[in-house]
Design goal:
The chain has 149 residues and is α+β, with helices and mostly antiparallel strands. It has five helices and four strands, in the order H-H-H-E-H-E-E-H-E. It has two domains: 41 residues, Arc Repressor Mutant, subunit A (Orthogonal Bundle); 74 residues, Lrp/AsnC effector binding domain/regulation of amino acid metabolism (RAM) domain (Alpha-Beta Plaits), CATH 3.30.70.920. Strands 2-3-1-4 form a four-stranded antiparallel beta sheet. Strand 2 and strand 3 form a beta hairpin. The protein is elongated, with a radius of gyration of 20 Å. The N and C termini lie close together (12 Å).
């Protein structure tokens, strides 16, 4: 990767809808040369996909929860079940396995507290969890998908 690849990635992570013509002008390449570079970045997996970011608030999803989980189950079968269950639940938008005192952290986006409780009840019905604690987000100060290129 060179500086042109970095420029391409910086531009498309800000706005994936940029036309190839606009992108090529911004990085100083011909349209075909720019397309080849984007294609290589996509095929190599550096560009994982292109998406539209939606407003959770405008779609009626007014509650974001950060959920911390501790488990006393560290068998592969438990992790496989946890993985399968959380991937089946679209309101769970992020899951991280952590080092330290907390085993997992999840970000859950739902309409309201009742919807969160329904998610919580389904989760504990399907997965044995030692300890779970949840906090609701009062204000989002920063939330970006952009990597610091």
């Amino acid at each position: 990767m060179d500086n042109i690849d970095l420029k391409i990635m910086k531009l498309i992570q800000k706005d994936a809808s940029l036309s190839l013509d606009t992108l090529s002008k911004e990085v100083g390449l011909s349209r075909n040369a720019c397309w080849r570079r984007v294609n290589i970045l996509e095929k190599s997996g550096v560009i994982k996909g292109r998406v539209a970011l939606l407003s959770s608030e405008k779609l009626g999803f007014g509650l974001t929860m950060i959920v911390l989980i501790k488990t006393n189950q560290h068998a592969k079968s438990w992790l496989e079940t946890f993985d399968k269950v959380t991937k089946r639940m679209p309101e769970i938008v992020s899951v991280y396995r952590l080092g330290g005192d907390i085993d997992y952290m999840m970000k859950i986006i739902v309409k309201d507290a009742n919807a969160y409780d329904e998610t919580y009840q389904r989760l504990i019905k399907e997965i044995e969890i030692f300890d779970i604690s949840a906090s609701f987000v009062m204000e989002t100060l920063k939330d970006t998908t952009e990597l610091p290129i």
